[in-house]
Write a structure and sequence with these properties.
This protein has 2 domains: 4-208, Alpha-Beta Complex (inorganic pyrophosphatase (n-terminal core)), CATH 3.90.1640; 213-335, Diaminopimelate Epimerase, Chain A, domain 1, CATH 3.10.310. It contains 12 helices and 12 strands. The protein has helices at 4-16, 30-45, 78-87, 105-110, 141-151, 160-173, 184-196, 200-208, 213-225, 242-247, 293-300, 318-335; strands at 19-23, 49-54, 72-73, 90-94, 115-120, 131-134, 227-229, 235-240, 270-277, 280-287, 304-305, 309-314. Strands 3-2-1-4-5-6 form a 6-stranded parallel beta sheet, sandwiched between helices. Helix 4 (105-110) links the parallel strand 4 (90-94) and strand 5. Helix 2 (30-45) packs antiparallel against helix 6, helix 6 runs antiparallel to helix 7 (184-196) and helix 6 (160-173) crosses helix 8.
Length: 337
């Protein structure tokens, strides 16, 4: 539940603005795109001139969402982005709480004179907006977006299509309610969304069960040949090199959910996924119980996130990244006892 005073201030900002820009984080996931497009749809119905600007492309399995075809990609449409931000009176930062999360778009944003509103659920926010809606107890930014829409008196604008964007965001950010989903509020929201008309079977098919042949082969290879266990910690990890990703025609979003699979192994409560890219090693972490993968990622992998779900980056070789995980995790486990 967002404070009433904050909602009133947000509505005042929206009422006064004609040109509005909505921005998700770099490499936007289901929560970031779901929240952005749901908010985009509501603002359009309020008569606003609104655009969604993404720092880069988003996964193909999210392209069914209404408004997805209108998202402006900063990497490929820089001149348009400069024009839109030059006239924007209000900026919404969704699903990130530090400008470093939007990569190259940060420099452009810092030159904008528009008012800023942040809506996010990650811990440790930077002071980046005039209005900061930061609720770390929320399961997803889409959960917060639902609260903002309903508390603002705009629930009637939340039609079936926009409700499905929010539902998809909650499902992707909680692993279909398998983590970060212990609060009763999230189930009440999901119930409301289904009541609005969300076709949950359709959404699950589009998001989780519409895999390409190459993605399924990559998953099989990852689990069959690239998954390993640690001997001195209840952890398992998957390692995929840049060459292996190219071999399986990897596209953004193809590895979605891979990091969750090791947690299905008996005795495993910590999971990691290492993916090599030309400029860095991308790392994802998941855990069960109270082990804070966000703190571990923050300390050793330039990352952060939630207690049970976090991400990070490593600047060095793939081998060194894995070695850091294998040596530092047991030490970190001991320090947290």
């Amino acid at each position: 539940m967002v404070k009433d005073t904050t909602i009133r201030q947000l509505k005042e900002f929206v009422d006064k603005a004609e040109n509005i820009v909505v921005i998700p984080h770099h490499n936007p996931d289901g929560d970031a795109i779901g929240a952005s497009l749901a908010w985009y749809g509501v603002l359009k119905q309020l008569g606003k001139n609104v655009n969604v600007i993404s720092p880069n492309s988003f996964p193909e399995f999210l392209e069914w969402m209404p408004g997805a075809e209108e998202v402006v990609n900063f990497e490929t449409e820089k001149s348009k982005v400069y024009t839109l931000l030059g006239s924007a009176e209000l900026l919404f930062f969704l699903d990130f709480n530090g400008l470093s999360r939007i990569k190259g778009l940060q420099d452009v944003i810092e030159q904008s004179s528009g008012k800023r509103i942040m809506i996010d659920h990650h811990p440790g926010p930077d002071d980046i907006a005039d209005i900061m809606i930061s609720e770390t107890s929320a399961s997803a930014t889409c959960e917060l977006m639902y609260d903002v829409i309903t508390q603002s008196g705009w629930k009637e604008l939340l039609n079936k299509e926009l409700a499905e964007c929010i539902y998809a965001g909650i499902m992707t950010d909680t692993g279909t309610l398998s983590y970060n989903s212990s609060r009763p509020e999230i189930y009440r929201i999901v119930g409301d969304l289904v009541g609005i008309g969300v076709d949950k079977d359709k959404v699950h098919k589009l998001v989780f069960h519409s895999n390409s042949f190459s993605r399924m082969k990559l998953l099989g290879y990852a689990l069959g040949s690239k998954m390993n266990k640690l001997e001195d910690a209840p952890a398992a990890y998957i390692v995929l090199s840049d060459q292996e990703l190219k071999q399986y025609d990897y596209k953004p979003g193809d590895s979605e959910g891979f990091v969750n699979y090791p947690l299905w192994i008996e005795g495993i409560s910590i999971s990691a996924l290492f993916m090599e890219h030309p400029d860095k090693i991308k790392v994802s972490f998941r855990s069960r119980g109270t082990f804070p993968v966000n703190k571990f990622s923050e300390k050793f992998f330039n990352g952060g996130g939630h207690v049970n779900a976090a991400g990070g980056e490593f600047y060095g070789t793939l081998e060194k990244a894995v070695e850091t995980f294998k040596t530092k995790l047991p030490e970190f486990l001991v320090s947290k006892k």
